[in-house]
Amino acid sequence: MGKKHVRYPKAYREEIVELARNGTSCGDLAKRFEPSEQTIRNWVDQDKRDRGVGDGGLSSTEREDLRQLKRENRRLREERDILKKAAVFFAEETKSHPKHRR
């Protein structure tokens, strides 16, 4: 069984990142605090991206925008599928009940 995913408070993450920015190694921080060295390294890397000095990955804002766009895209696809089914249903209904012509 794998490790349980722990969500650390934002203020806690920011404090640890600040310590890393001030020169404390991720390994030392991992020994003093609960998160693993890799977790702390990930936080530091994300902080760099958010400040525009990282490796070119997505900033936190860009990640949130992408998450919202994916959610919206999924919703729009569902709506489109519903409309397709409705169009087929009404097309078949119209064929089975032709209007009387004068």
In short:
The chain is mainly alpha-helical. The chain is built from four helices and no strands.
Q: What this model shows, in words?
A:
With 102 residues, the chain is mainly alpha-helical. The protein has 2 domains: 7-57; 59-102. It has 4 helices and no strands. It has helices at 10-21, 26-32, 37-50, 60-96. α1 packs across α3 and α2 crosses α3. The chain is elongated. The termini are far apart. The model has no long low-confidence stretch (mean pLDDT 88).
Q: How is the biggest beta sheet arranged?
A: none
Distance between the termini: 75 Å
Spell the H/E element sequence: HHHH
- Output the structural class: mainly alpha
Query: What proportion strand?
Result: under 5%
Shape: elongated
Uncertain segments of ≥5 residues (pLDDT<50)? none
How large, in whole angstroms, is the Cα Rg? 26 Å
Mean pLDDT: 88
Number of helical segments with 4 or more residues? 4
Number of domains: 2
Beta strands, count: 0
> What percentage of residues falls in helices of 4 or more residues?
55-70%
Give the arrangement of secondary structure elements.
Blueprint (H helix, E strand, L loop, with lengths): L9 H12 L4 H7 L4 H14 L9 H37 L6
Helix pairs in contact: 1-3, 2-3
For this entry, give a set of tags.
102 residues, mainly alpha, elongated, 2 domains, 4 helices, single chain
